[in-house]
Design goal:
The structure holds two protein chains of two kinds. Chain A is α/β, with parallel strands linked by helices. In chain A, 37% of the residues lie in helices and 14% in strands. Chain A has eleven helices and nine strands. In chain A, the strands form two sheets. Chain A has a five-stranded parallel beta sheet with strand order 7-6-5-8-9, covered by helices on one side. In chain A, strands 2-1-3-4 form a four-stranded parallel beta sheet, sandwiched between helices. The longest helix of chain A is centred in the C-terminal third of the chain and has 19 residues, at 282-300. The two termini of chain A are 24 Å apart. The mean pLDDT of chain A is 93. Chain B is of the alpha+beta class. Chain B folds into two domains: 4-97, Aspartate carbamoyltransferase regulatory subunit, N-terminal domain (Alpha-Beta Plaits), CATH 3.30.70; 103-154, SH3 type barrels (Roll). In chain B, 15% of the residues lie in helices and 36% in strands. Chain B has four helices and nine strands, in the order αβαββαββββββα. Chain B has helices spanning 4-8, 26-32, 69-74, 149-154, and strands at 15-22, 43-51, 55-63, 83-88, 91-97, 103-105, 127-133, 136-140, 146-147. In chain B, the strands form two sheets. Chain B has a five-stranded antiparallel beta sheet. The radius of gyration of chain B is 16 Å and the shape is globular. The two termini of chain B are 32 Å apart. The mean pLDDT of chain B is 89. The chains are: A alpha/beta, B alpha+beta. The A-B interface holds A 6, 83, 85-87, 104-109, 111-112, 115-116, 126-130, 192-193, 196 and B 110, 112, 114-119, 121-124, 137, 139-146.
Protein backbone atom coordinates (compact mmCIF):
# COMPACT_ATOMS: atom_id res chain seq x y z
CA UNK A 1 0.00 0.00 0.00
CA UNK A 2 1.78 3.14 -1.20
CA UNK A 3 -0.89 5.76 -0.63
CA UNK A 4 -4.65 6.15 -0.46
CA UNK A 5 -6.50 7.85 -3.29
CA UNK A 6 -9.83 5.97 -3.33
CA UNK A 7 -11.23 3.18 -1.18
CA UNK A 8 -10.55 0.86 -4.11
CA UNK A 9 -6.90 1.05 -3.06
CA UNK A 10 -7.82 -0.97 0.06
CA UNK A 11 -8.99 -4.55 0.39
CA UNK A 12 -11.70 -5.32 2.92
CA UNK A 13 -9.05 -7.04 5.07
CA UNK A 14 -6.91 -3.89 4.99
CA UNK A 15 -9.89 -1.76 5.99
CA UNK A 16 -10.64 -4.03 8.95
CA UNK A 17 -6.98 -4.02 9.96
CA UNK A 18 -6.85 -0.18 9.83
CA UNK A 19 -10.00 -0.01 11.98
CA UNK A 20 -8.54 -2.52 14.47
CA UNK A 21 -5.38 -0.42 14.76
CA UNK A 22 -7.49 2.73 15.13
CA UNK A 23 -9.27 1.14 18.07
CA UNK A 24 -5.94 0.36 19.73
CA UNK A 25 -5.01 4.03 19.39
CA UNK A 26 -8.04 5.53 21.13
CA UNK A 27 -6.11 6.18 24.40
CA UNK A 28 -3.37 7.98 22.44
CA UNK A 29 -5.92 10.15 20.63
CA UNK A 30 -7.48 11.06 23.96
CA UNK A 31 -4.09 12.04 25.34
CA UNK A 32 -4.19 9.27 27.97
CA UNK A 33 -1.13 7.48 26.61
CA UNK A 34 2.02 8.88 25.07
CA UNK A 35 3.31 6.94 22.05
CA UNK A 36 5.82 8.83 19.86
CA UNK A 37 5.96 6.08 17.26
CA UNK A 38 6.22 8.49 14.32
CA UNK A 39 8.97 10.65 15.88
CA UNK A 40 11.22 12.09 13.20
CA UNK A 41 8.62 11.70 10.45
CA UNK A 42 7.27 14.74 8.59
CA UNK A 43 3.76 15.09 7.16
CA UNK A 44 3.04 17.70 4.47
CA UNK A 45 -0.50 19.02 4.84
CA UNK A 46 -1.39 20.43 1.42
CA UNK A 47 -4.83 21.99 1.57
CA UNK A 48 -5.57 23.93 -1.60
CA UNK A 49 -9.12 24.56 -0.42
CA UNK A 50 -10.61 25.19 3.04
CA UNK A 51 -10.78 22.45 5.63
CA UNK A 52 -11.24 22.44 9.38
CA UNK A 53 -11.76 18.89 10.63
CA UNK A 54 -9.71 16.99 8.08
CA UNK A 55 -6.67 19.27 8.21
CA UNK A 56 -6.69 19.56 12.00
CA UNK A 57 -7.31 15.89 12.62
CA UNK A 58 -4.37 14.92 10.37
CA UNK A 59 -2.25 17.43 12.25
CA UNK A 60 -3.41 16.14 15.63
CA UNK A 61 -2.92 12.53 14.54
CA UNK A 62 0.67 13.19 13.44
CA UNK A 63 1.56 15.23 16.52
CA UNK A 64 0.00 12.77 18.98
CA UNK A 65 2.32 10.17 17.47
CA UNK A 66 5.42 12.36 17.83
CA UNK A 67 5.71 13.40 14.18
CA UNK A 68 5.79 16.91 12.78
CA UNK A 69 3.67 18.71 10.22
CA UNK A 70 4.37 21.11 7.38
CA UNK A 71 1.39 23.19 6.33
CA UNK A 72 1.05 24.71 2.88
CA UNK A 73 -0.72 27.59 4.60
CA UNK A 74 -2.98 30.00 2.82
CA UNK A 75 -2.91 29.20 -0.89
CA UNK A 76 -3.24 32.92 -1.60
CA UNK A 77 0.24 33.40 -0.11
CA UNK A 78 1.90 30.37 -1.68
CA UNK A 79 3.64 29.93 -5.01
CA UNK A 80 0.41 28.47 -6.40
CA UNK A 81 -0.87 32.00 -7.09
CA UNK A 82 2.29 32.66 -9.05
CA UNK A 83 1.21 29.93 -11.41
CA UNK A 84 3.18 26.97 -10.09
CA UNK A 85 1.88 23.63 -11.34
CA UNK A 86 0.73 20.96 -8.95
CA UNK A 87 3.49 18.77 -10.36
CA UNK A 88 6.17 21.25 -9.29
CA UNK A 89 4.64 21.76 -5.83
CA UNK A 90 4.65 18.00 -5.34
CA UNK A 91 8.30 17.72 -6.40
CA UNK A 92 9.20 19.95 -3.46
CA UNK A 93 7.15 17.87 -1.07
CA UNK A 94 8.96 14.79 -2.26
CA UNK A 95 12.10 16.35 -0.82
CA UNK A 96 10.63 17.94 2.31
CA UNK A 97 8.28 15.32 3.75
CA UNK A 98 7.83 11.60 4.33
CA UNK A 99 4.14 11.59 3.47
CA UNK A 100 1.69 14.09 1.95
CA UNK A 101 -1.99 14.78 2.48
CA UNK A 102 -3.67 16.72 -0.30
CA UNK A 103 -7.02 18.44 -0.68
CA UNK A 104 -7.58 20.18 -3.97
CA UNK A 105 -10.56 21.73 -5.77
CA UNK A 106 -9.72 19.87 -8.99
CA UNK A 107 -10.89 16.30 -9.38
CA UNK A 108 -8.09 13.79 -9.93
CA UNK A 109 -5.52 16.01 -8.19
CA UNK A 110 -4.64 13.34 -5.62
CA UNK A 111 -4.02 10.59 -8.19
CA UNK A 112 -2.04 13.06 -10.27
CA UNK A 113 0.06 14.00 -7.23
CA UNK A 114 0.70 10.37 -6.38
CA UNK A 115 1.97 9.83 -9.92
CA UNK A 116 4.30 12.82 -9.52
CA UNK A 117 6.16 11.76 -6.35
CA UNK A 118 7.69 8.80 -4.58
CA UNK A 119 6.32 9.50 -1.06
CA UNK A 120 2.87 8.15 -0.12
CA UNK A 121 0.00 10.52 -0.95
CA UNK A 122 -3.31 10.56 0.90
CA UNK A 123 -6.37 12.02 -0.77
CA UNK A 124 -8.18 14.34 1.62
CA UNK A 125 -10.75 15.35 -1.00
CA UNK A 126 -10.37 16.13 -4.70
CA UNK A 127 -13.14 18.36 -6.03
CA UNK A 128 -16.33 16.31 -6.01
CA UNK A 129 -14.28 13.11 -6.33
CA UNK A 130 -13.26 11.01 -3.34
CA UNK A 131 -12.51 11.39 0.36
CA UNK A 132 -11.33 7.95 1.50
CA UNK A 133 -10.05 8.90 4.96
CA UNK A 134 -13.50 10.24 5.77
CA UNK A 135 -14.72 6.79 4.77
CA UNK A 136 -12.33 5.13 7.20
CA UNK A 137 -13.60 7.23 10.09
CA UNK A 138 -17.19 6.71 8.96
CA UNK A 139 -16.68 2.96 8.92
CA UNK A 140 -15.01 3.15 12.32
CA UNK A 141 -18.03 5.03 13.67
CA UNK A 142 -20.48 2.54 12.20
CA UNK A 143 -18.54 -0.46 13.50
CA UNK A 144 -18.17 1.07 16.95
CA UNK A 145 -21.93 1.70 17.12
CA UNK A 146 -23.25 -1.49 15.53
CA UNK A 147 -20.40 -3.91 16.22
CA UNK A 148 -20.23 -4.85 12.56
CA UNK A 149 -20.04 -3.42 9.05
CA UNK A 150 -21.84 -6.34 7.47
CA UNK A 151 -25.34 -6.26 6.06
CA UNK A 152 -26.51 -2.93 7.47
CA UNK A 153 -29.30 -0.83 6.01
CA UNK A 154 -27.81 2.59 5.26
CA UNK A 155 -29.39 5.73 3.78
CA UNK A 156 -27.14 8.41 2.29
CA UNK A 157 -28.98 11.73 2.16
CA UNK A 158 -28.54 15.12 0.55
CA UNK A 159 -25.97 16.17 -2.01
CA UNK A 160 -24.90 12.85 -3.48
CA UNK A 161 -23.68 14.39 -6.71
CA UNK A 162 -21.04 16.75 -5.37
CA UNK A 163 -20.63 15.16 -1.94
CA UNK A 164 -17.34 13.30 -2.18
CA UNK A 165 -17.72 11.67 1.24
CA UNK A 166 -20.73 9.67 0.08
CA UNK A 167 -18.98 8.56 -3.10
CA UNK A 168 -16.23 6.81 -1.17
CA UNK A 169 -18.52 5.59 1.60
CA UNK A 170 -21.10 3.98 -0.68
CA UNK A 171 -18.39 1.98 -2.45
CA UNK A 172 -17.00 0.73 0.85
CA UNK A 173 -20.39 -0.12 2.39
CA UNK A 174 -21.36 -2.04 -0.72
CA UNK A 175 -18.29 -4.22 -0.31
CA UNK A 176 -19.47 -5.17 3.17
CA UNK A 177 -22.88 -6.24 1.89
CA UNK A 178 -24.85 -3.23 3.09
CA UNK A 179 -28.15 -2.26 1.51
CA UNK A 180 -27.98 1.31 0.24
CA UNK A 181 -30.70 3.90 -0.17
CA UNK A 182 -29.70 7.11 -1.94
CA UNK A 183 -31.96 10.02 -1.00
CA UNK A 184 -31.41 13.25 -2.92
CA UNK A 185 -33.08 15.78 -5.18
CA UNK A 186 -32.97 14.49 -8.77
CA UNK A 187 -30.44 17.16 -9.70
CA UNK A 188 -28.05 15.97 -6.96
CA UNK A 189 -28.25 12.21 -7.49
CA UNK A 190 -25.28 9.88 -7.23
CA UNK A 191 -22.91 10.13 -10.24
CA UNK A 192 -23.12 7.51 -12.95
CA UNK A 193 -19.55 6.30 -12.27
CA UNK A 194 -20.57 5.25 -8.77
CA UNK A 195 -23.98 3.71 -9.53
CA UNK A 196 -22.53 1.89 -12.54
CA UNK A 197 -19.84 0.27 -10.38
CA UNK A 198 -22.31 -0.62 -7.64
CA UNK A 199 -24.86 -2.12 -10.00
CA UNK A 200 -22.25 -4.15 -11.85
CA UNK A 201 -21.11 -5.49 -8.47
CA UNK A 202 -24.69 -6.65 -7.85
CA UNK A 203 -25.41 -4.19 -5.05
CA UNK A 204 -29.03 -3.43 -4.28
CA UNK A 205 -29.58 0.33 -4.56
CA UNK A 206 -32.76 2.31 -4.06
CA UNK A 207 -32.82 5.91 -5.31
CA UNK A 208 -35.56 8.16 -3.95
CA UNK A 209 -36.38 11.74 -3.06
CA UNK A 210 -38.23 10.79 0.15
CA UNK A 211 -36.31 10.95 3.43
CA UNK A 212 -39.09 10.07 5.82
CA UNK A 213 -40.58 7.02 4.15
CA UNK A 214 -38.22 4.35 5.45
CA UNK A 215 -36.62 5.64 8.66
CA UNK A 216 -37.90 2.70 10.74
CA UNK A 217 -35.93 0.21 8.61
CA UNK A 218 -32.58 1.99 8.75
CA UNK A 219 -29.46 1.28 10.79
CA UNK A 220 -27.65 4.43 9.67
CA UNK A 221 -28.82 7.78 8.30
CA UNK A 222 -25.86 9.60 6.77
CA UNK A 223 -26.83 13.24 6.23
CA UNK A 224 -24.80 15.62 4.05
CA UNK A 225 -24.82 19.33 3.45
CA UNK A 226 -25.97 20.76 0.13
CA UNK A 227 -22.65 22.37 -0.83
CA UNK A 228 -23.27 25.89 -2.08
CA UNK A 229 -19.65 26.26 -3.17
CA UNK A 230 -19.94 23.43 -5.71
CA UNK A 231 -22.87 24.95 -7.60
CA UNK A 232 -21.97 26.81 -10.76
CA UNK A 233 -25.24 28.76 -10.48
CA UNK A 234 -26.63 30.19 -7.21
CA UNK A 235 -30.24 29.90 -8.43
CA UNK A 236 -29.76 26.17 -8.84
CA UNK A 237 -28.47 26.00 -5.26
CA UNK A 238 -31.52 27.78 -3.86
CA UNK A 239 -33.85 25.34 -5.64
CA UNK A 240 -32.53 22.45 -3.56
CA UNK A 241 -31.15 24.07 -0.39
CA UNK A 242 -32.99 22.96 2.73
CA UNK A 243 -34.90 20.16 0.99
CA UNK A 244 -33.92 17.51 3.57
CA UNK A 245 -34.17 18.31 7.26
CA UNK A 246 -34.00 15.83 10.07
CA UNK A 247 -35.49 16.75 13.42
CA UNK A 248 -36.03 14.89 16.68
CA UNK A 249 -39.66 14.04 15.91
CA UNK A 250 -38.64 12.35 12.64
CA UNK A 251 -36.73 9.80 14.70
CA UNK A 252 -39.72 8.56 16.75
CA UNK A 253 -40.10 5.52 14.54
CA UNK A 254 -36.37 4.78 14.27
CA UNK A 255 -34.73 1.66 15.68
CA UNK A 256 -33.20 2.22 19.11
CA UNK A 257 -29.66 1.70 17.83
CA UNK A 258 -30.06 3.64 14.58
CA UNK A 259 -27.34 6.28 14.28
CA UNK A 260 -27.37 9.65 12.56
CA UNK A 261 -24.05 10.62 11.00
CA UNK A 262 -22.80 13.74 9.20
CA UNK A 263 -19.33 14.58 7.87
CA UNK A 264 -19.84 18.17 9.13
CA UNK A 265 -20.08 21.10 8.83
CA UNK A 266 -23.87 21.05 8.92
CA UNK A 267 -26.09 23.96 8.06
CA UNK A 268 -29.75 23.18 8.73
CA UNK A 269 -30.07 19.56 7.59
CA UNK A 270 -29.94 18.20 11.16
CA UNK A 271 -31.88 20.18 13.70
CA UNK A 272 -30.01 20.87 16.95
CA UNK A 273 -32.72 19.01 18.89
CA UNK A 274 -31.30 15.78 17.45
CA UNK A 275 -27.96 16.41 19.20
CA UNK A 276 -29.18 15.23 22.59
CA UNK A 277 -30.75 11.99 21.31
CA UNK A 278 -28.85 8.69 21.51
CA UNK A 279 -29.02 8.57 17.71
CA UNK A 280 -26.68 11.54 17.22
CA UNK A 281 -23.21 10.26 16.40
CA UNK A 282 -21.68 13.11 14.36
CA UNK A 283 -19.49 14.63 17.05
CA UNK A 284 -18.00 11.26 18.03
CA UNK A 285 -17.59 10.65 14.31
CA UNK A 286 -15.44 13.79 14.01
CA UNK A 287 -13.26 12.64 16.92
CA UNK A 288 -12.81 9.21 15.35
CA UNK A 289 -11.14 10.99 12.44
CA UNK A 290 -8.05 11.28 14.62
CA UNK A 291 -7.66 7.55 15.30
CA UNK A 292 -8.57 6.53 11.76
CA UNK A 293 -5.90 8.89 10.40
CA UNK A 294 -3.34 7.85 13.02
CA UNK A 295 -3.81 4.26 11.98
CA UNK A 296 -3.50 5.08 8.27
CA UNK A 297 -0.38 7.23 8.77
CA UNK A 298 1.32 4.39 10.67
CA UNK A 299 0.45 1.88 7.98
CA UNK A 300 1.73 4.07 5.15
CA UNK A 301 4.91 4.89 7.05
CA UNK A 302 5.60 1.24 7.75
CA UNK A 303 4.90 1.20 11.52
CA UNK A 304 3.14 -1.94 12.79
CA UNK A 305 0.72 -0.56 15.35
CA UNK A 306 -0.05 -3.93 16.95
CA UNK A 307 3.65 -4.36 17.77
CA UNK A 308 4.16 -0.97 19.40
CA UNK A 309 0.79 -0.19 20.98
CA UNK A 310 -0.65 -2.55 23.57
CA UNK A 311 -4.34 -3.47 23.54
CA UNK B 1 -10.67 -7.39 -50.09
CA UNK B 2 -13.26 -8.93 -52.34
CA UNK B 3 -16.32 -7.37 -50.72
CA UNK B 4 -18.34 -4.79 -52.52
CA UNK B 5 -17.10 -1.94 -50.36
CA UNK B 6 -13.53 -2.40 -51.38
CA UNK B 7 -14.43 -2.51 -55.07
CA UNK B 8 -16.22 0.83 -54.88
CA UNK B 9 -12.93 2.52 -54.12
CA UNK B 10 -10.21 2.75 -56.72
CA UNK B 11 -7.21 0.59 -55.95
CA UNK B 12 -4.33 2.53 -54.45
CA UNK B 13 -0.71 2.05 -55.33
CA UNK B 14 0.75 2.58 -51.86
CA UNK B 15 -0.81 3.21 -48.47
CA UNK B 16 -3.26 1.74 -45.97
CA UNK B 17 -6.74 0.27 -46.49
CA UNK B 18 -9.03 0.01 -43.48
CA UNK B 19 -12.02 -2.27 -43.83
CA UNK B 20 -14.88 -3.22 -41.49
CA UNK B 21 -15.21 0.21 -39.97
CA UNK B 22 -18.63 0.61 -38.26
CA UNK B 23 -21.03 2.41 -40.54
CA UNK B 24 -20.86 6.18 -40.23
CA UNK B 25 -17.75 6.35 -38.09
CA UNK B 26 -15.04 6.88 -40.67
CA UNK B 27 -14.94 10.65 -40.17
CA UNK B 28 -14.32 10.11 -36.46
CA UNK B 29 -11.49 7.78 -37.37
CA UNK B 30 -9.95 10.35 -39.67
CA UNK B 31 -10.11 12.73 -36.73
CA UNK B 32 -8.40 10.23 -34.46
CA UNK B 33 -5.66 9.76 -37.01
CA UNK B 34 -5.20 13.50 -37.36
CA UNK B 35 -6.13 13.31 -41.04
CA UNK B 36 -9.24 15.49 -41.05
CA UNK B 37 -7.21 18.65 -41.48
CA UNK B 38 -4.75 17.14 -43.90
CA UNK B 39 -4.68 18.90 -47.25
CA UNK B 40 -1.96 16.71 -48.75
CA UNK B 41 -2.91 13.09 -48.03
CA UNK B 42 -5.29 11.61 -50.64
CA UNK B 43 -8.05 9.72 -48.85
CA UNK B 44 -10.92 7.69 -50.30
CA UNK B 45 -13.98 6.86 -48.27
CA UNK B 46 -17.06 4.82 -48.86
CA UNK B 47 -19.75 4.86 -46.23
CA UNK B 48 -22.71 2.66 -45.38
CA UNK B 49 -22.01 -0.10 -47.90
CA UNK B 50 -23.46 -3.59 -47.30
CA UNK B 51 -21.29 -5.96 -45.27
CA UNK B 52 -21.65 -9.62 -44.33
CA UNK B 53 -19.96 -9.04 -40.96
CA UNK B 54 -21.48 -5.69 -39.95
CA UNK B 55 -24.58 -5.36 -42.18
CA UNK B 56 -23.33 -1.86 -43.09
CA UNK B 57 -19.78 -0.60 -42.94
CA UNK B 58 -17.39 2.11 -44.00
CA UNK B 59 -14.16 1.52 -45.90
CA UNK B 60 -11.21 3.91 -46.02
CA UNK B 61 -8.07 4.11 -48.08
CA UNK B 62 -5.23 6.41 -47.13
CA UNK B 63 -2.69 6.88 -49.89
CA UNK B 64 1.08 7.07 -49.52
CA UNK B 65 0.97 6.51 -45.81
CA UNK B 66 1.48 3.28 -43.86
CA UNK B 67 -0.23 3.70 -40.54
CA UNK B 68 1.80 2.48 -37.58
CA UNK B 69 0.49 -0.07 -35.11
CA UNK B 70 0.33 2.68 -32.45
CA UNK B 71 -1.87 4.77 -34.74
CA UNK B 72 -4.04 1.79 -35.56
CA UNK B 73 -4.55 0.92 -31.91
CA UNK B 74 -6.15 4.34 -31.46
CA UNK B 75 -8.93 3.13 -33.72
CA UNK B 76 -9.79 0.25 -31.48
CA UNK B 77 -12.28 2.22 -29.38
CA UNK B 78 -14.32 3.00 -32.52
CA UNK B 79 -13.57 0.11 -34.83
CA UNK B 80 -12.47 -2.87 -32.75
CA UNK B 81 -13.02 -5.29 -35.65
CA UNK B 82 -11.32 -3.24 -38.34
CA UNK B 83 -9.05 -5.13 -40.70
CA UNK B 84 -6.11 -3.21 -42.02
CA UNK B 85 -4.05 -3.86 -45.12
CA UNK B 86 -0.73 -2.25 -45.90
CA UNK B 87 -0.44 -1.82 -49.64
CA UNK B 88 2.69 -1.44 -51.72
CA UNK B 89 2.66 -1.33 -55.48
CA UNK B 90 -1.05 -2.31 -55.57
CA UNK B 91 -0.39 -5.49 -53.50
CA UNK B 92 -1.33 -6.28 -49.93
CA UNK B 93 2.02 -6.86 -48.27
CA UNK B 94 0.82 -7.01 -44.66
CA UNK B 95 -2.42 -7.48 -42.76
CA UNK B 96 -2.82 -5.89 -39.37
CA UNK B 97 -5.48 -5.92 -36.69
CA UNK B 98 -6.25 -3.21 -34.20
CA UNK B 99 -5.92 -3.97 -30.55
CA UNK B 100 -7.49 -2.17 -27.62
CA UNK B 101 -4.93 -2.00 -24.83
CA UNK B 102 -5.54 -1.09 -21.21
CA UNK B 103 -4.83 2.62 -21.53
CA UNK B 104 -4.86 5.46 -24.08
CA UNK B 105 -1.86 7.59 -23.22
CA UNK B 106 -1.58 11.13 -24.57
CA UNK B 107 -4.21 10.46 -27.21
CA UNK B 108 -7.06 12.51 -25.75
CA UNK B 109 -7.66 14.90 -22.88
CA UNK B 110 -10.23 14.20 -20.19
CA UNK B 111 -13.53 15.85 -21.12
CA UNK B 112 -14.35 16.93 -17.56
CA UNK B 113 -13.85 20.65 -17.10
CA UNK B 114 -12.77 20.30 -13.45
CA UNK B 115 -10.20 17.54 -13.98
CA UNK B 116 -6.68 18.40 -12.83
CA UNK B 117 -5.41 17.69 -16.35
CA UNK B 118 -7.29 20.66 -17.80
CA UNK B 119 -4.36 22.88 -16.75
CA UNK B 120 -2.30 22.76 -19.95
CA UNK B 121 0.90 23.39 -18.01
CA UNK B 122 0.63 20.23 -15.93
CA UNK B 123 3.28 17.98 -17.45
CA UNK B 124 2.16 14.41 -16.68
CA UNK B 125 0.63 12.42 -19.57
CA UNK B 126 -3.09 12.40 -20.29
CA UNK B 127 -4.29 8.90 -19.44
CA UNK B 128 -7.63 7.35 -20.33
CA UNK B 129 -8.09 3.87 -18.89
CA UNK B 130 -10.04 1.11 -20.61
CA UNK B 131 -12.23 0.23 -17.62
CA UNK B 132 -14.19 -2.38 -19.54
CA UNK B 133 -13.86 -3.65 -23.12
CA UNK B 134 -17.33 -5.13 -23.55
CA UNK B 135 -19.30 -2.99 -23.13
CA UNK B 136 -16.66 -0.38 -23.81
CA UNK B 137 -16.17 1.95 -20.84
CA UNK B 138 -13.37 4.50 -20.73
CA UNK B 139 -12.40 6.59 -17.70
CA UNK B 140 -9.89 9.30 -16.98
CA UNK B 141 -7.07 7.75 -14.93
CA UNK B 142 -6.95 10.79 -12.66
CA UNK B 143 -10.50 12.01 -12.03
CA UNK B 144 -12.29 8.77 -12.90
CA UNK B 145 -14.92 10.40 -15.14
CA UNK B 146 -16.47 8.17 -17.80
CA UNK B 147 -15.45 9.28 -21.30
CA UNK B 148 -17.65 8.53 -24.29
CA UNK B 149 -16.14 7.79 -27.68
CA UNK B 150 -17.37 11.21 -28.81
CA UNK B 151 -15.59 12.77 -25.81
CA UNK B 152 -12.37 11.13 -26.97
CA UNK B 153 -12.84 12.26 -30.55
CA UNK B 154 -13.65 15.80 -29.45
CA UNK B 155 -10.63 16.03 -27.15
CA UNK B 156 -7.90 14.50 -29.25
CA UNK B 157 -4.42 15.80 -28.57
Amino acid sequence: MSGLITVDDLTNEEIISILDDAERMLPIARGETHAPILAGKVLANLFFEPSTRTRMSFETAMKRLGGSVLNLGDVANSSVVKGETLFDTMQMMDGYADIAVIRHPRQGAARYSADAVSIPVINAGDGAGHHPTQTLLDLFTIRTSHGTLEGLNVALVGDLRYGRTVHSLSQALARFGCTLTFISPASLSMPEEITSDLRSAGVSITETGDLHGSIEDLDVIYMTRIQKERFPDEDEYHKVAGVFKLSRSDLDSAKKNMIVMHPLPRVDEISSDVDSTPHAMYFEQAFYGVVARMSLLCRLLGVQVSEVVSE
Amino acid sequence: MSEEGMRRVTAIQNGTAIDHVPSGSSLKILGMLGLLDSRSTPISLVMNVPSKKLERKDVMKVEDRELTQEELDRLAIIAPNASVSIIRDYRVVEKRTVELGTELRNIARCSFSNCITTNPREPLPHRILVHSKDPLELRCAYCGRIQSVDDIVNNLI
